[in-house]
């Protein structure tokens, strides 16, 4: 039995690198299991601005296990239908949102990113998240030795390190130096939240043009989330830095209510980011005592709205796989189980998002006519047939989280 001065390696706390959605979900899942955890975030504060996201039924079930699902469902904005249109306004396909709820037990819920961050953060014990605290993995550890992380206040041993440090993950590069890393998708994106849209949008969903799309999502409090993507060279930005004007140039002549919404957009709240994705799957999502999670493990293009959802799934699967902090078994077996569970699923979703991106990227006039014709025919199929295509993603069931501290 280890002495007080030499505790068992598994008794050391877990350390999460990154305070985004995946990192906070992982910390909360570990906390629910009774595992001590600290989150190190290099940014000075957790203040996401100007962006929304979709929480699909698979993510909402996971958030229920974390006890924050009800808080987020209370933000739901009901709308009778969502759909897909051409820039002219002609509908290609429409889906009854109640049919989605009946089919999967939950809607696809649009929320501001800040609302999800706040829900996760409020559920954690005070002091769990340390902002303005960059952290670096020094040693991944193994079955017999702890991992080692360096922060501004020194070096810390950890039973587990969760690397949720984003698409440019330094930890991933350190663990898998031969992996090619993220590749540019060909798309740049704009995102903004409009606090005062004037009136609720009468048409919700996406508009697909030639090599570009735009989406409209109602949010709680009468706000509206607008996002857009277009083919563009990597690193390109508006000549004068005015990305609001760039959005108007691209989408100002598209169908209502896009021009009206963009006319009410605060130019200072438009975010632009190029889309990079890990289209080459990693060999594993772990090495030593380190688990990669979210964009660090499987960054994907946004065309299925599953980036945040898959990070939340990761968090639950990882936490559920872990043995008791005082268990004598090999902790790496749990991380192997995590990789085995998550790699095939996320690889399929990354590939599916890439395929949808190729459809959006269609640019020639004949190609767009063919694409839109196929989408129109698909839109005439029974709703059940269309919804079944999402079933492999949406019907995922989260594992339970046993609180080891209560044993």
List the helices and strands and how they pair.
Blueprint (H helix, E strand, L loop, with lengths): L13 E4 L3 H12 L4 E4 L11 E4 L1 H9 L3 H5 L7 E5 L5 E6 H8 L4 E4 H10 L6 E2 L4 E5 L7 E5 L2 E5 L1 E4 L6 H6 L7 E12 L10 E4 L3 E7 L5 E8 L11 H9 L6 H6 L7 E7 L8 E2 L2 E3 L2 H4 L8 H15 L9 H30 L4 H15 L3 H12 L13
Parallel strand pairs: 1-2, 1-11, 2-7, 4-13, 11-18
Antiparallel strand pairs: 3-6, 4-5, 8-9, 9-10, 12-15, 12-16, 13-14, 14-15, 17-18
Helix pairs in contact: 1-5, 1-10, 2-10, 4-13, 10-11
Structure description:
- There is one protein chain.
- With 407 residues, this protein is an alpha/beta fold.
- The chain has a single domain (9-183, 277-406), classed as FAD/NAD(P)-binding domain, CATH 3.50.50.60.
- 35% of the residues lie in helices and 22% in strands.
- It has helices spanning 21-32, 57-65, 69-73, 97-104, 113-122, 170-175, 243-251, 258-263, 295-298, 307-321, 331-360, 365-379, 383-394, and strands at 14-17, 37-40, 52-55, 81-85, 91-96, 109-112, 129-130, 135-139, 147-151, 154-158, 160-163, 183-194, 205-208, 212-218, 224-231, 271-277, 286-287, 290-292.
- The strands form 4 sheets. A 7-stranded mixed sheet has the order 5-4-13-14-15-12-16, sandwiched between helices. Strands 7-2-1-11-18-17 form a 6-stranded mixed sheet. Strands 8-9-10 form a 3-stranded antiparallel sheet.
- Helix 1 links the parallel strand 1 and strand 2 (37-40).
Quick recap of the structure?
Helix content is 35%, strand content 22%. With 407 residues, it is an alpha/beta fold. The protein has a single domain, classed as FAD/NAD(P)-binding domain (3-Layer(bba) Sandwich).
């Amino acid at each position: 039995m280890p002495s007080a001065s030499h505790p068992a390696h598994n008794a050391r706390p877990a350390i999460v690198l990154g305070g985004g959605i995946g990192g906070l979900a992982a910390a909360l899942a570990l906390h629910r299991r009774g595992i001590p955890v600290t989150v190190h975030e290099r940014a000075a504060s957790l203040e996401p601005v100007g962006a929304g996201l979709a929480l699909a039924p698979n993510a909402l079930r996971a958030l229920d296990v974390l006890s924050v699902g009800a808080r987020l469902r209370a933000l739901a904005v009901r709308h009778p239908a969502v759909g897909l249109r051409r820039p002219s306004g002609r509908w290609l396909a429409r889906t009854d949102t109640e049919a989605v709820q009946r089919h999967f037990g939950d809607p696809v819920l649009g929320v501001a990113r800040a609302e999800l961050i706040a829900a996760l953060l409020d559920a954690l014990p005070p002091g769990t998240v340390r902002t303005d605290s960059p952290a670096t993995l020094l040693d991944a550890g193994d079955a017999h030795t702890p991992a080692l992380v360096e922060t501004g206040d020194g070096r810390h041993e950890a039973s587990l390190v969760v690397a949720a440090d984003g698409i440019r993950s330094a930890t991933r590069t350190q663990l898998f130096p031969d992996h090619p890393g993220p590749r540019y998708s060909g798309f740049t994106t704009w995102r903004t939240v409009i606090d005062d849209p004037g009136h609720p949008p009468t048409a919700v969903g996406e508009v697909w043009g030639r090599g570009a799309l735009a989406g409209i999502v109602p949010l709680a409090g009468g706000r509206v989330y607008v996002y857009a993507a277009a083919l563009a060279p990597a690193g390109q930005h508006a000549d004068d830095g005015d990305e609001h004007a760039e959005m108007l140039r691209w989408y100002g002549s598209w169908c209502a209510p896009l021009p009206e919404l963009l006319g009410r957009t605060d130019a200072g709240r438009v975010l632009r980011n190029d889309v990079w994705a890990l289209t080459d799957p990693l060999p594993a999502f772990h090495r030593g005592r380190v688990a990669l999670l979210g964009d660090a493990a499987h960054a994907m293009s946004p065309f299925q709205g599953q980036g945040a959802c898959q990070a939340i799934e990761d968090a639950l699967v990882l936490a559920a796989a872990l043995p008791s902090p005082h268990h004598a078994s090999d902790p790496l077996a749990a991380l192997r189980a995590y990789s085995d569970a998550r790699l095939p699923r996320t690889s399929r979703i990354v590939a599916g998002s890439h395929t949808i991106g190729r459809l959006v990227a269609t640019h020639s006039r004949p190609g767009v006519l063919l694409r839109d014709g196929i989408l129109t025919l698909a839109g005439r199929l029974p709703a059940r047939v269309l919804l079944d295509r999402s079933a492999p993603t949406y019907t995922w069931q989260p594992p339970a989280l046993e609180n080891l501290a209560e044993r």
